[in-house]
Write a structure and sequence with these properties.
The protein contains 7 helices and 10 strands. The protein is α/β, with parallel strands linked by helices. The longest helix is centred in the C-terminal third of the chain and has 19 residues. A 5-stranded mixed barrel has the order 5-9-8-6-10, surrounded by 4 helices. The radius of gyration is 17 Å and the shape is globular. Helix 5 links the parallel strand 8 and strand 9. It has a single domain, classed as Rossmann fold.
Length: about 240
Amino acid sequence: MTPHNDAKIGEICKTVLMPGDPLRAKFIADNFLEDAKLVNSVRNVYAYTGKYKGHEVSVMASGMGMPSMGIYCYELYKVYGVENIIRIGSCGAYTKDLHLLDLILVDKTYTESNFALTLNNEVCNIANASAKLNEIIEQTASDFNISYTKGTTLCSDCFDYYMTDISKLFQRAPKDIDIIGAEMEAFALFYTAKMLNKKASCILTVVDSHYDKTELSSGDRQNALDNMIKLGLESAIRV
């Protein structure tokens, strides 16, 4: 149906859970969904539709970075009629109050990117999550006793550990925002959702920290991501 997605219209649900990694999408389909069907495999960016607790839900990868997220979320919203996307991903922590494996619910995201200017001729560097979706996620977290921190994250064009001097980025950032973590996709998702009058949220798991150099085992990462996946799926079926 598009150069990037060969799912048929109707094969993708109105609500989509969106990890970055295609293999994470496959993992969710294999381990959390019933009757999961692969509906897209173009460029190995997998999309599946199945049932979670009797409710139909889709899960699709976004790839890494804003350009990739921008393509896939735009087409889901514009071509496939998706109304809600909940991104689930990993992030780095920028505050001592966050620890490895903690969850972040993104309230808004800041970027230095020209994504909005290029896409929509608008100078915009801060984008908000859907208040309605975030309310659903917060209520779901409360019901399942899942703890999280809600706050503002950085959405970067570069992997932050490769930046030559990250302190200069913080010097340039607006003084009235408190950045608690960093990832690379949420701004493109939130801005595209706003532009198309759709809804988007983002749940993140802290997998590294500028204050804690502990190395996580693959088992620890998997267990933490399972907790995030559960929160995303339980929220998705309440939308």
